[in-house]
Design a protein that fits this description.
8 strands, 2 domains, Rossmann fold, alpha/beta, four-stranded parallel sheet
């Protein structure tokens, strides 16, 4: 066989091989990452939430099928925060607004304006099914309430994207198991104590106290700085319940708490009501409370 025929034969083999590969690729589905499955940035469900814990809930349920924008940044208060122009511009492209729905100041003041900016946005009330206590808006700080909020988020994402209903259902179910484990841990840490009182500047854990039969003693009342009389009452209560900590959140000043802690020979300690990682924060809070109750 001449060299010319060898070259021609190899060329034919290569052409046939390429043709067979093309046919096989036509019939064999590519990996989703290669062919695109509707989860690229341009095809994600864009949603807005008010606070960081909600964002954590949405990401656990929606996974990589959602893109989440949080209205209230870390360190800010949802009672007083004013959205920035850039945030309002982003809202114009969102499909869903997951509101807490329990009476937060930002939502009361801005939701109507947000709907005007984006008339097509669907506002979902994540508090549906939760009973409010004394008009306390901090419903998320209870694992039982968190589960209800997660179910409301699951239902809304399923309605918006029914083709992926099973995906959202499975994710929600997995996160429910995490919340059940958290609930069991809190009971294991706190149920054995008789002294179940704790003091905190901003009363953001009323629902946690209600679920686990604790006594929350707030320093701040009605969003107002405590008077000298209130501070003295807190000192008296701290001594009555043999408290060692005055819990504070990064969203609020600590001057009054430091004064109370100094008077009782205790100290201030962090307790964040607006965490980015909900379960990790709740585990930490359970440990802090157990330490306080143990004296």
């Amino acid at each position: 066989m001449t060299r010319r025929w060898v070259v021609l034969t190899l060329l034919v083999v290569v052409i046939i091989g390429i043709g067979m590969l093309a046919v096989s690729l036509h019939y064999i589905p590519l990996h989703p990452w290669l062919r695109g499955n509707g989860n690229g940035n341009g095809n994600k469900i864009c949603v807005v939430v008010t606070i960081l814990p909600e964002a954590d809930f949405v990401r656990h349920v929606g996974g990589d099928r959602v893109k989440v924008m949080v209205m209230v940044p870390p360190g800010a208060s949802p009672h007083t925060y004013e959205p920035r122009p850039g945030q309002l511009k982003q809202i114009s492209t969102a499909r869903i607004y997951f509101k807490v729905g329990s009476g937060l100041g930002l939502e009361q003041k801005w939701l109507e304006k947000i709907s005007a900016i984006n008339p097509a946005i669907k506002v979902v009330d994540t508090s549906k099914g939760i009973t409010l206590i004394d008009n306390d808006p901090h419903i998320w700080n209870s694992p039982a309430n968190a589960k209800i909020m997660v179910m409301n988020i699951r239902d809304a994402l399923t309605q918006a994207d029914p083709e992926n209903a099973e995906f959202y259902t499975n994710n929600a179910r997995a996160y429910m198991r995490e919340l059940d484990a958290l609930d069991a841990y809190i009971h294991s840490k706190l149920d054995r104590f008789n002294n179940r009182a704790f003091m905190i500047y901003h009363p953001a854990f009323g629902y946690l106290a209600a679920q686990y039969k604790l006594r929350q003693i707030p320093v701040e009342h009605g969003g107002k700085e405590p008077t000298a009389r209130v501070i003295q009452d807190c000192i008296d209560n701290a001594r009555r319940y043999n408290l060692h900590y005055v819990f504070v959140a990064p969203q609020f000043a600590t001057t009054e708490c430091e004064a109370i802690a100094k008077e009782i020979g205790g100290e201030t300690a962090p307790m964040d009501p607006l965490p980015a990682n909900y379960t990790a924060n709740m585990y930490k809070i359970a440990d802090l409370l157990a330490e306080e109750f143990a004296g």
